[in-house]
Amino acid sequence: FWVIPAVEVKIEVVIPEKERSKEEMSPNGKASPLIYKVNGTARHYHLEEHPVASNPYHNTKDVVEASVCHVKDLENGQMREVDLGCGKALLIKESGEFHAVGHKCPHYGAPLVKGVLSKGRVRCPWHGACFNIGTGDIEDFPGLDSLPRFQVKIEKEKVYIRASKQALQAQRRTKMMAKCISLSNYNLSSTNVLIIGAGAAGLVCAETLRQEGFSDRIVMCTMDRHLPYDRPKLSKSMDSHPEQIALRPKEFFCTYDIEVLTEMQVAAVDVKSKIAVFKDGFKMEYNKLLIATGNTPKTLSCKGKEMENVFNIRTPEDANRVVKLATSKNVVIVGASFLGMEVAAYLAERAHSVSLVELEHVPFKKFFGERVGRAVMKMFENNRVKFYMQTEVSELREQEGKLKEVVLKSGKVLRADVCVVGVGAVPATGFLKQSGINIDSKGFIVVNKMMQTNIPGVFAAGDAVTFPLALRNNKKVNVPHWQMAHMHGRIAALNMLAHGMEISTVPYLWTAMFGKSIRYVGHGEGFDDVVIQGDLDELKFVAFYTKSDEVVAVASMNYDPIVSKVAEVLAAGRTIRKRDVE
Fold first, then answer.
1. Pseudo-torsion of CA 563, 568, 571, 576, nearest 10°?
2. Angle formed by the axes of helices 200-211 and 482-496, to 10°?
3. How do 78-83 and 63-70 pair as beta strands?
4. Of 105, 136, 181, 310, which sees the most CB atoms within 10 A?
5. What homologous superfamily is domain 63-170 in, according to CATH?
6. Superfamily (CATH) of domain 515-580
7. What angle do helix axes 316-326 and 338-347 make, rounded to 10 degrees?
8. Where in the chain is the domain with CATH 2.102.10.10?
9. So what's the architecture of 190-296+427-497 in CATH?
């Protein structure tokens, strides 16, 4: 049983025999050391070496040891946050054994004690990241760091934790990584691994290669002027500066020899010669290639779309500029997409007025369904956001070169000092048209479960791909979400190193508006019914999206950790039936 206040869901699960062994496998299982052929020559991996001490806490001043409970205080399958005086740890009991790890998710600091413990891992209640309780290693995303692991000992029926004060305070651990051997020997115009795109997929790919001991050259290139940053924050926390949302500091890239070429656009890829040609004419030879270029936002097609003060939010500078221009002014947002709605929520208390224009009759209809969409719309209206539904923009009017009015096809004229466009996006794959890489009719790169394209040595990841989703019987889908991009990058890296790793992760996403979050797990495309438990008016609900008699996705608001619980059930290969949730 899962019992939640006012909601009781009984789920009977049957695990197919062949899936049981799969379940025990951890995607972070240590692989045997590999020798990797680079341009025909065998190279060994070299992990950055640290002196191995018999006592891991060689600086005794930095160590704290505390008795935290009696052995009988915790039942199997229970977690407890314990205080060691100078910091907290998460104490876990599973299968009769005690484990202690960091108590906060390294992604955004969620309390893991409120998460879900299942089969040797704990899943974050907010965004679904998973950590191995034995090692602390991250096993599903989002986020880049693992948890620190602490020593546990039992003496006279008491449980003691021994930990370094530094680790207790940091609450995160970066996995050990290799460095590049003899970087000075490289020809500037050739690299072993070239990564096009510096979002989550590209960065996780580079980091995974180094974690696995890969010690050859890695080059990432991006059209952006910044090192990789936390892109979801562009619409959720719009006045963040680039350095505040950087995923890794500059020093990190120097330390682990991950080269990043900023403001560099690839114009073409010659897969026969293994050469990427840049817009400025520069050419780079590669051995393995990852394409992780993401999406390009769609623009409006009406008169005046090129005007000043009309924005697609692509960069931190765009987001910062919109906030500055919108303060105490009139804002019109076109498109009730995730981006459009998050921007509207962020600007609602800063702008004089916020108007939202959308073709559908409720926001999020295709994604969350009509009833949830309507409840969200009501929350926005209560926060002074005005909706203009079932219409679109026919013209943007200017006065002295600046935006003044947005004219709708319904005839309504809206005052506007700033316009933000969030009407969807297309995959940024135009430069691959003549490459021979398989691209579908919508422009997505087609990959298999190992993130490989049809061209040997060429991988693709993130928002620009369609891949077989295990959850939906390996149907080829596009999942343009932050968590999935991380996992794509990891799987691509492991398969560049010939690990033969297939993707099996369950999609997990979230949106944040007016201090409230909707969490979502699964892939609900084509759902035919929604079963709602809880109270939509109170914004405290769970929505089960079903297709025939199977639950294909679940969304919740103010009902943690239900979505993380469902994620664990789906990740185990189990089916939730409609009758179980009705």
1. -70
2. 40
3. unpaired
4. 105
5. Rieske [2Fe-2S] iron-sulphur domain (2.102.10.10)
6. FAD/NAD-linked reductase, C-terminal dimerisation domain (3.30.390.30)
7. 40
8. 63-170
9. 3-Layer(bba) Sandwich (3.50)
In this structure, how many other beta carbons lie within 10 angstroms of the beta carbon of residue 39?
11
Q: Which residue has the tokens 């959720």?
A: 236
Cβ atoms within 10 A of the Cβ of 305, count? 14
Residue position matching structure tokens 């780079």: 284
DSSP code for 342: H
Q: Name the residue with higher pLDDT: 61 or 539.
A: 539
Q: How far apart are CA 139 and CA 311, in angstroms?
A: 37
pLDDT of residue 154: 96
Instruction: Report how far Cα 171 is from the mean position of its chain's Cα atoms.
Output: 20
What's this model's pTM, rounded to 2 decimal places? 0.89
DSSP string, 85-111: SSSEEEEEEETTEEEEE-SB-TTT--B
Extract the tokens encoding 281: 């004419």
Q: Taking Cα atoms as reference points, which of 320, 360, 310 lies closest to residue 337? A: 360
Q: What are the start and end residues of each CATH 3.50.50.60 domain in the chain?
A: 190-296+427-497, 310-423
Give the whole-angstrom CA distance, residue 221 versus residue 231: 17
- Confidence tier at 185 by pLDDT (50, 70, 90): low
Distance in angstroms (rounded) separating the CA atoms of residues 60 and 72:
30
Cβ atoms of 154 and 181 within 8 Å: the answer is no
Residue with token string 């087609």: 446
CA distances (Å), origin 471, targets 31, 330, 403, 575 = 26, 44, 46, 9
List the helix and strand counts (H, then E) for the chain. Answer: 12, 40
What's the rounded mean pLDDT across residues 441-469? 98
Q: Can you tell me the distance from the alpha carbon of 418 to that of 329, in angstroms, rounded to the nearest whole number? A: 8
Q: Which amino acid is at 196?
A: I
> What phi-psi label fits residue 86: left (phi over 0), alpha (psi between -120 and 50 degrees) or beta?
alpha
Give the gyration radius of the chain's Cα atoms: 25
Please tell me whether residue 312 adopts helix, strand or coil conformation.
Answer: coil
Angle between helices 370-381 and 338-347 (to 10 degrees): 20
What does the buried/exposed string (b/e) look like for 344-375 if buried means 16 or more CB atoms within 10 Å of the residue's CB?
bbbbbebbebbbbbbeeebbbbebbbeebbbb
pLDDT surpasses 80 at 32: no
pLDDT for the residue 28: 35
* Contact in structure between 127 and 138 (CB atoms under 8 Å): no
Per-residue pLDDT at 183: 63
**152 close to 160: Cβ distance less than 8 angstroms:** yes
Report the sign of the C-alpha dihedral through residues 50, 53, 55, 60, in that order.
negative
pLDDT digit string (tens) for 79-124?
999 999 999 999 999 999 999 999 999 999 999 999 999 999 999 9
**Averaged confidence pLDDT in the chain:** 90
Q: Is 22 helix (H, G, I), strand (E, B) or coil?
A: helix
**Domain with residues 310-423, CATH architecture:** 3-Layer(bba) Sandwich (3.50)
Residue 560, φ and ψ in degrees, nearest 5: -65, 150
Give ranges for CATH 3.30.390.30 in the chain: 515-580
Rounded Cα–Cα distance for residues 138 and 490 (Å): 11
Structure confidence at residue 120 (pLDDT): 97
